[in-house]
Amino acid sequence: SLAMVGYRYAFHGKAAHAAAAPHEGINALNAVIHLFTGIDALRQHLRADVRIHGVITDGGKAANVVPDFAAANFMLRSRDQDYLHEVVEKVSQVAEGAAQMTGARLEILPAHPMYENVRPSAVLARSIKANAQIVGMRLDEAVASGGSGASTDFGNVSQVVPSFALRFAVSETPVPGHSLAMTAAAKTDLAHDNAIFTAKALALTACDLLADPALLAEARKEFQARAGGQVSRRSN
């Protein structure tokens, strides 16, 4: 999963009558628009694994009034948190430029805590796969996609201890995430059965780790190797 963090970019301008005295106003909405266009121009210079997506939450109250306040919430993602920090800085510079172009005052506020990228564990994956087969869970072939494009606070856990998360199907055919179709699929018998299979596979793997010190030691050794001999710095 991708590392992710969220920020709110708020611009404070100056209200004025949009027809009678527009020259007396500072248009905060223009700053937000420049923020979006600046980020769009930035995308071509970022790595392919980066995702930046946002919405305008405040954009003025009436068309005949120069908006004195406008804001947008953005989520920024990358495959690793170190590069994500670079992306955050680049977007901050775009926001500062938008403020300077319009004369608005910029305020950057935290909107979502850092979700770190998930550190994989091949040792735990092999154990869970074997246990999933024991309980009769249907396993699909791995998709060579480089991982999920989503983000999760489980990533923070995986940076501290050897960890593994098992995703399960709720539908025989693909359904869009964060949709009403996903809500409906998540209530089906298939989804319920696969949730039970997943719980059994995870429980059996926990038993394996408790009963086999060698397996636990192997998982810890791999974890340290992926961390380069050190547990990465925390941001949570």
Structural overview:
- The protein is of the alpha+beta class and 236 residues long.
- The chain is 42% helix and 17% strand.
- The chain contains seven helices and four strands; from the N terminus they run βαββαβααααα.
- It has a four-stranded antiparallel sheet with strand order 2-3-1-4.
- The two termini are 17 Å apart.
- Residues 229-236 have low confidence and may be disordered.
Strands ordered across the widest β-sheet: 2-3-1-4
Note the main sheet.
4 strands, antiparallel
Based on Cα principal axes, name the global outline: elongated
Number of strands: 4
Helix content: 40-55%
C-alpha termini separation: 17 Å
Describe the structure concisely for a colleague:
This protein has 236 residues and is an alpha+beta fold.
Index terms:
236 residues, alpha+beta, four-stranded antiparallel beta sheet, 7 helices
Please specify the SSE layout and strand pairing.
Blueprint lengths: L2 E10 L15 H15 L8 E8 L10 E10 L2 H22 L2 E11 L6 H13 L19 H5 L21 H6 L3 H23 L1 H14 L10
Antiparallel strand pairs: 1-3, 1-4, 2-3
Helix pairs in contact: 1-2, 3-6, 6-7
